[in-house]
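Much of what follows relies on a compact textual record of a protein's fold. With that in mind, consider the following protein and its fold in token form.
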Amino acid sequence: MIVCPQSMEHPRGSRCQRLPGQVVKMSGSEPERPQFLFVKALASRGRLEAVTQQMGYHPRYLDSFLKMQHYLLHMDGPLPFDCRHYIAIMAAARHQCRYLVNLHVLQFLRAGGDPQWLRGLDFIPPKLRNLNEINKILAHRPWLITKEHIEKLLKISEWSWSLAELVHAVVLLAHCHALASFVFGCGCEQEEGPGGRGSLKASPPGNQCFCEAATGNGCSQELLRINRKRSLDSCMELDSLRERIQRIHVETEGREETRLLPLDREEDTVGEVTGAANLACYMQDPDFGYQDFARRDEDQTQDYSWEDHGFSLVNRLYSDIGHLLDEKFRMVDGLQSSAMAKRQGCEPSVFKRGIWNYIHCMFGIRYDDYDYAEVNHLLERMLKVYIKTVTCYPEKTNPEMFDRFWKQFKHSEKVHVNLLILEARMQAELLYALQAITQYMVS
């Protein structure tokens, strides 16, 4: 359990020391930013993924999210690129999130990953397989992470991790666990696509193309040209990937749990080329899940905050990621939610803090200066059920649950709640993991 002292600033109102120029500043006027972001996403992916479309309701946040995710997955860092995507597969599988698993399977192959690894954990190097324990604990009961788990991974052996590699891996795990909550919470998993179930399909604002919503005009010719070019490139790449996948399919025929299923439609290339028929091959101890945090089981309490401890540690061991994470935490705190707060009869900051603290409380993080009786006053029952389900066991989220909570609210307001869930959950996981690393370093 983590108890935060009264003197600590709210966890999303960061007071971290930042160096000028460490984080790329957003440019362009507010009306132009959504178009720029979606054109950039389309140019890099060949399509607008469901997560990007949903976050597009809040373009300032989307900007910081895309920068952090790009740095985490595609820029220089301690871990090889194929390992990053495989770790993402392991993390997403804990919540049975086929959307993210399929997306990273494709990226893993594009990064030159060994197709044999896609047969499951028994076919990957022991170093990666050893990460399974903290993946499992962080995903479901992060308060159980101890310095012994860290020591086991760092102890000198042929398959040992360095501190920098482990911090990179921990950020990846926390990012993908939290993103799985967002995927299920906003219905991306249910949309037609990688293993989706064909429901919960939200339209862009006003049923327009996002570029139209941003600028008042139709998609530009440049946007269409990029789309056609990427479609041709994706088609050529798909043929090559299918050949590699087919070889695995033949080798593993008869083993349903490790079979890879190629898809036929070209328009589903990005993130949808293949997916394990049974995601259990990517995890061990599948019955391990969330249990309510019990304060009586806690041996000791530690004051550990993002601002005073986590930010500096993660930034020291994995350069600049702390700045990008901190910007994302601050950005979600700065999103406008006046309509939601007005309906609840309170200030926007009070309403958002109620949601944030409720999520952290479920993971054993409490703030001395907060009256938790306010949570029951601010959050109606259906909203609390929705938040707990999406946060703790997102794979149990269903379309009815999404439709029933806050029927009077706009879709963008529901997306805002899911962004708060994403960031609060990610920060909670990081706090426990970084606290364990700190304890290992000082022991």
Remarks:
- Confidence is low (pLDDT under 50) at residues 6-32, 192-236, 254-276, 296-301.
- The longest strand covers residues 2-4.
- Residues 411-442 form the longest helix (32 residues).
